[in-house]
């Protein structure tokens, strides 16, 4: 989504036609309609001339469905997964769920053509945008194609619409890696001590069960901490007194 699309979507205004939604999600219009008939997507808002309009929530839901499919889930399993989610989740909440799902997958680095890179990105990419993805270390030119981490590509494409320099994005990525590795070491040490006396089979089972729970806890905690930091920063910038 463009920055203006995102702002309008956050404000509750549907911005996309079904063709635009499909193009940005990297799926066909037929797929969007199929998901709608199965209840995987909420219905669009009907605007002038009976044209359906979609917003950031629809795009985020399509991204989550795509991630669940990448994990090998069947359509029936995806339907059950989405039914368990609260009905009023925002696009940001859905992105958080997608991040948790994506964390289950192993790191996958693939070599793709320029055409395939655009298809994976969900939209055509200009030469400048590909260079920016390269500067953010999301894609690496290799011969006539590119080496890309599939797990980072979607995030990198979304960052293209954020008014930050590649240098700032790389610095943020470095900070996140350093702090997340430190948290991972501390959590791993705690879990190791907790299961020190258990059988190896029980340890593996506990690890597999705890992985998604720990990731979701970290993401949720970080999201709330970041929201509080941003609120305090904005209050300081505008001269407002921080709320309770």
UniProtKB/TrEMBL annotation:
DNA-binding listed as a keyword: yes
Entries under Pfam families matching the protein: MerR_1
Coiled-coil positions: none
HTH merR-type domain: residues covered: 15-84
Keyword Iron: no
Keywords, ordered alphabetically: DNA-binding
InterPro entries in the cross-refs: DNA-bd_dom_put_sf, MerR-type_HTH_dom, MerR_fam
PANTHER family named in the record: HTH MERR-TYPE DOMAIN-CONTAINING PROTEIN (PTHR30204:SF93), REDOX-CYCLING DRUG-SENSING TRANSCRIPTIONAL ACTIVATOR SOXR (PTHR30204)
Name assigned to this protein: MerR family transcriptional regulator
Organism: Streptomyces violaceorubidus
Lineage, top ranks: Bacteria, Bacillati, Actinomycetota, Actinomycetes, Kitasatosporales
């Amino acid at each position: 989504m463009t920055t203006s699309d995102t702002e309008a979507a956050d404000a509750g205004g549907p911005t996309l036609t079904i063709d635009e939604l499909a193009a940005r999600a990297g799926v066909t219009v037929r797929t969007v309609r199929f998901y709608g008939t199965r209840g995987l997507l909420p219905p669009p808002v009907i605007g002038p001339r009976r044209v359906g309009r979609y917003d950031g929530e629809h795009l985020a839901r399509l991204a989550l469905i795509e991630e669940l499919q990448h994990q090998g889930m069947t359509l029936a399993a995806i339907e059950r997964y989405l039914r368990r989610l609260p009905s009023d989740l925002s696009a940001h909440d859905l992105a958080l769920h997608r991040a948790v799902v994506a964390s289950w997958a192993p790191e996958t680095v693939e070599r793709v053509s320029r055409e395939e890179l655009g298809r994976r990105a969900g939209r055509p990419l200009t030469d400048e945008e590909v260079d920016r993805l390269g500067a953010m270390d999301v894609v690496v030119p290799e011969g006539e194609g590119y080496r890309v981490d599939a797990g980072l590509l979607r995030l990198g494409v979304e960052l293209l619409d954020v008014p930050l320099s590649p240098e700032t994005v790389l610095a943020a990525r470095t900070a996140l890696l350093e702090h997340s590795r430190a948290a991972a070491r501390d959590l791993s040490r705690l879990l190791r001590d907790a299961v020190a006396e258990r059988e190896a089979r029980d340890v593996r089972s506990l690890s597999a069960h705890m992985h998604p729970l720990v990731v979701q806890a970290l993401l949720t905690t970080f999201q709330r901490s970041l929201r509080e930091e941003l609120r305090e920063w904005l209050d300081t910038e505008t001269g407002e007194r921080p709320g309770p």
